[in-house]
Specification:
The structure is a homodimer. The first copy, chain A, is of the alpha+beta class and about 350 residues long. Chain A has two domains: about 5-135, Creatine Amidinohydrolase, Chain A, domain 1 (3-Layer(aba) Sandwich), CATH 3.40.350; about 135-355, Creatine Amidinohydrolase (Alpha-Beta Complex), CATH 3.90.230. Helix content of chain A is about 35%, strand content about 25%. Chain A has helices at about 5-10, 30-35, 60-65, 80-90, 105-115, 125-135, 140-160, 170-180, 240-260, 265-280; strands at about 15-20, 40-45, 50-55, 70-75, 95-100, 120-125, 185, 190-195, 215-220, 220-225, 225, 230-235, 290, 300-305, 315-320, 320-325, 330, 335-340, 345, 355. In chain A, the strands form six sheets. A six-stranded mixed beta sheet of chain A has the order 4-3-2-1-5-6, sandwiched between helices. In chain A, strands 8-9-12-20 form a four-stranded mixed beta sheet, with helices on one face. Chain A has a three-stranded antiparallel beta sheet with strand order 7-10-11. In chain A, α7 (about 140-160) packs across α8 and α9 (about 240-260) runs antiparallel to α10 (about 265-280). The longest helix of chain A has 23 residues, at about 140-160. The radius of gyration of chain A is 23 Å and the shape is elongated. At the A-B interface, α5 and α8 of A face α5 and α8 of B.
């Protein structure tokens, strides 16, 4: 995807080729983005020639099935960058500057690169990758929609079965098991924070009985590499009038913020509007309003106080205002939003009216 | 654990301090090994002074609970290595050479380190970390035993319920769900390879009906960060006499190899013995005999043809011979082995007599 846009950037920056590299257990998201290949090896994108992958012999069949990019075999007994050097020579590509993501490239890899490919300089292009991935392709949008639908269905099933759960851990295990059954992975460690635990935005579910009061459930799945991220806050027991009012205020804020998102508006403005709409509760809102989602759970755009991002068509991001009352409770409501043809589409569809579980 | 041994190595190598660093989603295993802290931040081990952690303010409480090491707060608005520099100055530590793991340190981190701490050189000490982690502490051995016990229990339950499963994926989902219920994670993607799929050593379970014939199940859990790794091969349908003989031959080889392991013996020798004991099937054995396990699924020692490792007390490793008949079937039997007081202890205890599932 977008490999021609990357080539254009390379030519503009006078970088002869981009090198993306995967040697860890966890696959390189940028390499997957451009090649749809997840295994060991590297992806080479010359500014002026055809891109190619180098993969170990035992991965060759799998790579051919998943990627449309030209593939070379990484020969046994050779170092990866030794093979790369041979291929570059054969194709008469003589790079002076190689663009890599400094965020993902280790000192070991760098040492090996400099050893096998002489007289090159490297340049950090991690930001260019993030900027490209900020705008989703049609295919990415379809996968993200499916990821959100799966998360919605699992969450719905969880809320319908909620009376069965005794502990926070029970809820977490249910969500995780259902995720696996759908052939997905968790997008991030699930948050199930009942009662006073809800006042910590990043609480880990404990092996403790669900407390009465608000219960924050923050959950998402990873489907075909793409993350969904949804939060609903329910109530266990009988909410007081004040609690109901606080919930409805937050829900109102969340819905209005979403409604007011426009193409070419500053992301920062939505954050500021949230503070203003929360009024007397604005100091209880202690984190960012949202973040882009895609191959990573946190991508661009940032919906924060200092964000320089601007809303554009084909962006997908979360809107998740919350209020946290120390040692009392927390409420957060989060949806995944797509801007498409200048219109707002809410991809997560689980109902937001306060659900009350009688205990 | 072993932090004094690390200090000793640093002094011997004239390295003033070791820097371990965690900024990724996946935690740094070495940092966890020495500090039992998994969150963001860094661990600093000076050769001649007390070690300390630097963690973000929001992680301070969690770090204090999990680690016995002195903790400094990473102040908001400052870069991590800026804070490190201030602490080093305050404690009058003037490093000239800093030891880091080149395998885990990114170019971004290196750039930031060199910017904030002037006039230092870095040296790769990734091998020293691996060498230290090769010999397990008493505490690690206890955790590993528990990890193996959990894997055993789940696998037993799976084998007892095997008649219920229709597809390879069903088996995988069962093992994964049970792992979650035990509060653990999978140690690695489970392999369920039935019939001819078993001839690929790294097969991914498919959404296809379990085929008749041998079925390789390679599974393990991660418990408190420590991996277990067990493989059993069962038979679906009715095995022929020849198939039974091949299974029993492999089982015999595996048991004999384990029996013959001795302290101070070369790991390479066990690999060679395997080839010799397999006789006419030796060319069907296409991978290493085993690998160390611990905080990572593949650690030292290596039980391979070219290994330079030697069996020592308090090592834990797998012994997993296999035979693979292309397009027909595969058989692998794998246990986790501990050497303790010069004696061999098999930590994985699931029975190895061929289980036949009638279909």
């Amino acid at each position: 995807m977008n490999i021609n846009k990357l080539k254009q950037i390379l030519r503009q920056k006078n970088i002869q080729l981009a090198l993306l590299f995967n040697i860890n257990n966890d696959y390189d998201k940028n390499m997957y983005y451009f090649s749809e290949y997840k295994g060991l090896g590297c992806l080479v994108v010359p500014g002026k020639k055809q891109a190619f992958l180098i993969v170990p012999e035992m991965e060759y069949e799998r790579a051919k099935k998943t990627s449309k990019i030209k593939i070379y075999k990484w020969k046994k007994g050779k170092r990866l960058f030794e093979t790369l050097n041979e291929i570059l020579k054969k194709n008469k590509i003589k790079p002076e500057i190689i663009g890599i993501s400094y965020e993902n490239f280790t000192l070991s890899a760098n040492k090996s690169l400099k050893k096998h490919i002489k007289k090159i300089k490297t340049k950090d292009i991690s930001n260019d990758f993030l900027e490209l991935r900020k705008i989703k392709t049609r295919n990415e949008i379809n996968i993200m929609k499916k990821s959100c639908r799966i998360a919605d269905n699992i969450l719905k099933k969880c809320l319908n079965s909620f009376h069965k759960f005794k502990t926070e851990k029970d809820v977490e295990i249910f969500l995780h098991s259902e995720t696996i059954k759908q052939g997905c992975e968790l997008a991030f460690p699930t948050i199930v924070a009942s009662g006073s635990s809800g006042s910590m935005a990043h609480y880990e579910p404990g092996n403790i009985n669900l407390k009465k009061g608000f219960c924050v459930i923050d959950f998402g799945v990873k489907y075909q590499g793409y993350h969904s991220d949804i939060t609903r806050t329910i109530y266990i027991g009988a909410p007081s009038k004040e609690e109901k009012e606080t919930y409805n205020l937050l829900l109102n804020v969340q819905e209005n913020i979403i409604k007011n998102i426009r193409v070419n508006k500053k992301c920062m403005s939505s954050y500021e509007e949230t503070l203003s709409l929360l009024g007397k509760y604005s100091d209880k809102f202690t984190h960012g309003l949202g973040h882009g989602i895609g191959l990573q759970i946190h991508e661009l755009p940032n919906l924060t106080a200092k964000s320089e991002n601007i809303f554009k068509n084909n962006m997908i991001f979360t809107v998740e205002p919350g209020v946290y009352f120390e040692n009392k409770y927390g409420i957060r409501i989060e949806d995944d939003i797509l801007i498409k043809d200048k219109k707002i589409e809410i991809l997560t569809k689980t109902k937001k009216k306060l659900i009350v579980i009688k205990r």
